[in-house]
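pasting input
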Amino acid sequence: MSENLDVIFYPRSVALIGASKDVGFYIDPISASRLGEKFFLINPSSSEVLGFKCYSSVLDVPEPVDYAIFAVPAKFVPEILEECGRKSVRVAHIYSSGFGETGLEEGRVLEEEVLRVAKSYGIRVIGPNCMGVYCPESGLFFSHNLPSEAGSVAFVSQSGGQAVNFAFDGVSRGFRFSKVVSYGNALDVDFIELVDYLAEDPKTSIIGAYVEGLRKTDSLLETLKKASERKPLVILKGGQTGDGARAAASHTGVLAGSAKIWEGFLKQVKAVRVETFEEMADVIVGFLYSFPPKGGGVSIVTTSGGSAVIHTDLCVKVGLTVPSFSEGTQRELRRIIPIAGASIRNPLDAWYAFQSGILPEALNIVSRDETIHSLIIEVQPGGFKAYTDRDPSVVDKFTTILGETCKKIMNEHSKPTLIAVTPSIYPEFEAKIKSTFQNMNLPVYQSIYDAAKTLSELHQYQLGRNLR
Amino acid sequence: MSENLDVIFYPRSVALIGASKDVGFYIDPISASRLGEKFFLINPSSSEVLGFKCYSSVLDVPEPVDYAIFAVPAKFVPEILEECGRKSVRVAHIYSSGFGETGLEEGRVLEEEVLRVAKSYGIRVIGPNCMGVYCPESGLFFSHNLPSEAGSVAFVSQSGGQAVNFAFDGVSRGFRFSKVVSYGNALDVDFIELVDYLAEDPKTSIIGAYVEGLRKTDSLLETLKKASERKPLVILKGGQTGDGARAAASHTGVLAGSAKIWEGFLKQVKAVRVETFEEMADVIVGFLYSFPPKGGGVSIVTTSGGSAVIHTDLCVKVGLTVPSFSEGTQRELRRIIPIAGASIRNPLDAWYAFQSGILPEALNIVSRDETIHSLIIEVQPGGFKAYTDRDPSVVDKFTTILGETCKKIMNEHSKPTLIAVTPSIYPEFEAKIKSTFQNMNLPVYQSIYDAAKTLSELHQYQLGRNLR
């Protein structure tokens, strides 16, 4: 079944039906991609849109068309789908809304009509009421300004807006996508089939999903189980509360299902369940650029004593521990950090170590401590600013050395080492520090708290797998 | 008792003992402030630091000195404090560390000595091991780049790093300070006395506090109660867990006290308790630029259906409700939003309203609904970018009109109206939108979730007050 989905990610040619400048977010990036030569615009009343030639019907396109994007009013979709059938189009992505999600009888009737026509020609339908596919490898885009570089994260979303937002979250969080699919009302291609395909997709190493509800639930359990056995599956379930389920019904016209049932499901299949898209990105960054810790003992490394205290509390609250270093570790640290005021227990007060350049050595000592299974290092851009103002190269040097030390700890000691770059009033400077670490493929977070929540999720995930 | 503290915020003259470029964060900003003419540097081995004249002893200063900042090694403090006593100095802020927080006997002995000398001359001591005071009104600063403009937020912090960080949080979150005090080891001036003073301070409308533990607890309950009756008191307690209490002992040398005792305390005095500095800033923004809602019913206004669903769940989880609009409201909305696909229940799908310019009218209709006690409006900078690229003035116009509508709803309908400007990949553009709203004194948040948590906190706070 899922083999057929190759064509929705790797079409040889694409037509945009209802081309206008309002859907420039398809026209501009697809035209500029490797699909550009095989991308055809259809508009019966214009010969040109945004500088590109238009055909008046898909039937006029002089070459075969694999994939058609529908950006026409809902009521015209069935008739044009007929034309696509005659043209042997294999995939119809219906961007248009005005179907089942309206809650109106006419929307539901239109959906049935679309499904009937699609079935009669063997056309697979994505949507309606969705953004479709972003697959940088093949050249499919659903927004301006998305990277053309591919990565290994797949993201499946019932919401179009969140599909686009999360694609951009990848940019700011330092990861790239194999495939993103916004599948909207899920008239045909649905959550289950997509997850089934992505579980087998060699280009995908981790699957994120935002789901509101399902039309069909056959094989849900087996599919999620299989996917989760092959790669991490991170799920955000929308419509968990009564008010939320009502909102979901307005949004994609599906029943959200009971929160309890989903909770049990996700636990049973050992998926990672998150509550926000920030957490989704945090967990993905954790799996991509780190790995589950072997235990819950974490070392916090920070230049701020207050941050050390607060974040120790927060680490404990999310289920980790911040144990005192062993006496041996403390002895070794005291040798290189001879300052009475600096804590060498845990959290490690890194101010002296940072200033005197011995931070890598201190981190190495900490990483050898057996009570410590992971490290979180806080970098406060505001604190660095004074140093940069004096000598701009200082920070580059520091971030590079720190980044290399973190990689070494992860490689040699198999201990996840996460970096928290905290918000500051210097957004550009902060962005530069972040991207230096991200370009080294390191796990970067916005706070020790976010990093700790991720470590806890990853640890729980690993415990669940060990029980299999 | 608290009257005496005036001098720690409004000294007529300041000496920095141990002036060097390492404490340029005091020298540069205080020199440039209204205290500049009465700011004296002391260093026995240099005649000049950073371009400013140095005296070799505080006794050589030709004028009276009210306030001395100690930036000398701990062991020299008692002797120099004697000199300050002879000079009739009234406040000694001891920036130096190396006292009780080291956990060493010699540190404790030094503290006792400092206290003895201070008492014998009637000198009030701030610290040791702290950043001291930031009071833009009088000209006291503890960092470069802090605003010289004053506001009405006071912040009291046992941690120096967090005092500085939070002062900058004010910059990014759009509020200003009356006073910030980092009081470190609290040898003399302590948390209780500071809160007592700030409760009476006419320049302060809200008090935030970060506290790890107390040396004395006499009058704690009465002081917090009194303060909390006069103005909102927002407290972050560090060292709540066992590991956290141990970290606090390393940090400021105090016993953190049982989490349970503090929890009961804060509940009894009706303080708002927060877990992170982000929450602290969120709540402060809520009190400053909004007010507690009269009930838990919130309307979410967003252009993203997925965001509507997720955030409805999150609002419910934090104790709010997202009720359906009344039939009358729905009828009125349907008249101006004639699009079948747009939800006019709640959350309100604002895409059509935004595009057609009727968003202010739609918000006014919503604000008249009796089931709705507050509104959260999500603004996604990424979604606007395409509009700005075509016409840069569009966004300015939109944010101004939206901002004015929010103010109107708050003034005329007494319903808190919070704006969530979500993160994007356009940091400058995002910052511009944020600051437009902030400059209008509107409550701006990073997500609907953060705004909802704040509304819930404010609602609980008001319920607590009503019970008095």
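fyi Chain A has a mean pLDDT of 92.
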